[in-house]
Amino acid sequence: MIGIQAYALVAMLLFSLGALSVVTRKNIFVIYLGIELMLNALNLLFVALSRYYASMDLAVITLLIIGTIAAEAAVFLSLIVTLYRQRKTLDADRLKVTASKEG
Question: The domain at 4-89 falls in which architecture?
Answer without folding.
Answer: Orthogonal Bundle (1.10)
